[in-house]
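Case study 2.
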Amino acid sequence: MIRGLDPERAARLAPLMSECQRVLVQDGMEAVQRLLAMRQVDVMDSIIVTLDLVEAGPGAVGRAKEMVLLSRARATQLERHDEWVSGLLNAVKQSEDADPV
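Prediction:
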């Protein structure tokens, strides 16, 4: 279990972490990511669960984040996020172009 989680979040994620540990052993990390995506576990909680499964040490949070965000199971979410950010940046640029200071 990850230290520093608030008790409510830790209690909510504990059964999922146990289940994901079993899935990891049986089917690997991509299967874990598919399970998390299929259950619509949000990205932050997915990173926390994944962090619990990876080896601790320097860079563990970064590795867990990459495993979640670069998972094939999250490809559609990542595409939607990229489209949303692109649309937001375009809107900001158009607003700036339309209203020069």
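The chain has a mean pLDDT of 89.
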